[in-house]
Amino acid sequence: MNNESRYIQAGKEKLHYLEWGNGKRLLLAFHGYEDDAEMFNPLQQYLSEEYTILSFDLPHHGKSKWSEDTQLTKQELMALVESLKITYNVSKVSLLGYSMGGRVCLTIIACLPASIDKVVLIASDGLTQNSYYYFFTHNYFGKKIFRNLLDRPMPYFRLMNLLKKMRLVNASRHKFAMHFLQTEKSRKFLLHVWIGMSDIMPGPVKLRMAIRRYAIPISIFMGFYDKIIPPSMAEKFKSGLDTVQLFILEKGHRVFDNETAQQIAERF
Q1: Facing residues of 14 across strands?
Q2: Which long-range contacts (CB under 8 A, 24 or more apart) does 143-148 make?
Q3: Which end of the chain is more exposed for a tag (fewer CB within 10 A), N or C?
Q4: For all residues of the chain together, what is the average pLDDT?
């Protein structure tokens, strides 16, 4: 069984990935924020005979070599997928994405729908358009506000605590925000990742047209108790898409683990 550490060029930068298995089908896996390629290791025992699994470290994560203020562009992501198809001699790839990695999968679907076999999304970002994220990463004034927030977070902390006290922000979202903004290191990491991943956003109309036209089978696993990306987002996304199946598990945002790995693997 292959278990290799490799790099692939993405523009001027390099993404690290782990290769598992020796199957004839190709599965590309993308982790979530603050995770790395190792998170999908439990899938080896279920998929490594049928699939060759490439699990990536996204920009600024794991062993990937990525410069500050550098985007991973849609064009670079598509070139990467096309290159891997040639290298592994396949006409189609399957996709697996958790949280932020789900947004990567949805972007690939929108741009290369004819190249997609099966897709599994886990607590996926990108199911609905996030206007706040777009404002903070694509708008000139939004970028200024976001950088100021990261440089001077105390007023924001006071505001979040007030909103929590007034019950306008639930405890899970408050904890989520505080975790990523609490230290200077975590704030810098957030800035780098938001910039690095800001172009990886699927156009919702283009995405839905692609799924319908190519009848792409998509399985979505959501956590019933997830307050970060609640199941209602997946239910809204699924509406009108006959090839999308939704599975709601007794979990929070951390849906993928050793306990659910086999159930998720069965969708491939």
Answers
A1: 9, 65
A2: 146/191, 146/194, 147/191
A3: N
A4: 90
Residue listed under structure tokens 């904890």? 175
The larger pLDDT score, comparing residue 238 to residue 187, is at: 238
Portion of the chain with pLDDT greater than 90, in percent: 72
How far, in Å, CA of 165 to CA of 161, rounded? 6
pTM, whole model, 2 decimals? Answer: 0.90
Q: What is the distance between the alpha carbons of residues 257 and 230, in angstroms, rounded to a whole number? A: 18
Backbone angles phi, psi at 32, to 5 degrees: -105, -175
**Count of other CB atoms within 10 angstroms of residue 144:** 11
In angstroms, the CA 27 to CA 223 distance is 23
Residue 145 has pLDDT above 80, yes or no: no
Structural domains present in the chain: 3-129+201-265 (3.40.50.1820), 131-196 (no CATH)
pLDDT of amino acid 12 = 93
